[in-house]
Amino acid sequence: MKASYASIITQTLRKAAEISSSFSTVLILDVAIPYRALGDSKAHSYADLQSLLGQIYTLICTLCTDCSIDVQYDNDVDVRVLLFKDPIHDSSDDGNAHVGTLDSLQQLARCGRPWQKVCAMDCEQSEILLQLFLRLYKPPVDVDRSRMVVERFSVKETSQTDIDVPLPSTSQAESRTHHTSVAVGGTFDHLHSGHKLLLSMTALVLDRTTGPGSGSKPSITVGITGDELLENKKFRENLQSWDQRQAAVQIFLLAFLGKDAPSEQDFAAREVEPGRQQRTVYNLLSSGIAIRYVEIFDAFGPTVTDETITALVLSGETRAGGKAVNEKRGEKGWAPLDIFEVDVLDSSPDDGDTGKPPSQDFQNKISSTAIRQRIEQRSRTSN
User: Fold this and answer.
1) What's the burial of 110, exposed, middle or buried (CB within 10 Å: 0-12/13-18/19+)?
2) Is 158 helix (H, G, I), strand (E, B) or coil?
3) What is the model's pTM?
4) Cα Rg for the chain, rounded, in angstroms?
């Protein structure tokens, strides 16, 4: 992984941080990774895709630590990793979208984002992808395409441009449960790489194919902790409000799913008990996916009030929470949720590191508490 991508990502991050610093603004960097599926099955292995995304986000955090680039507080660069099928090596297409990735280079090129610069490896395979992208690229109507800059960075000849994602055997794929209603929960304060991995894997668990006449829309439910439950958090004065956290989650999820805005959006608030309103934001995408962002006041949220949810995505740190949810559902006579765990990011030898324990700087990039602490420290310094 490091041998393949460290050079291009480092050069791009440095360029992005330089631009961000010059204009004193947040710069969004979309890292689009082509992958190819190995095997005939369309059912991607959760473990392999999670490993792929985890390694990329870990590499990005490690490189940002080495280069003193801040990807969290003051967001020199807001990095989002996107996956799309490699059109060069993976031509299989049955017309259906089975996982929450961008399904093609065309979808990436026509998702309507006003990219100002496109960076690519200066090698043969990357050039083929670049030319395909430029041919397909369709900017928003108010953006002048001619102003987009293309920059190529030199890389080692051994660098590759795509990732092989092995798939389970046919028998495993046939027995795989399809989840058209998936849930995830968290505080999502000052959205960082760990959050992005969790949200990405939630989208990847979702199966967007529904049976004929089923009438059900594929849906993602995101439980976001209400403000009142965060009063005892460290550096709470620098916590983002529920509205800010919901907006950040929505922006990221839509980007990962290849959208910049939902086709429809609605907001609702209902009284769940005297004096307490529960906020919910609804998104409906043109692809048919429904997303709801629900304010939660306990560790369970909609997982114990909505029987149609069949899967829960959580981090390894909150494994006990998943067990508690299924116990609650069992008390109601409901089927248990399938639990999908996301690994906690760390810098490990597998990522080409030295094998030393993760540095504090690395850990700070995936900690909302550390981000709030840095905000506090900088605020004191400026005063």
Assistant:
1) middle
2) coil
3) 0.85
4) 21
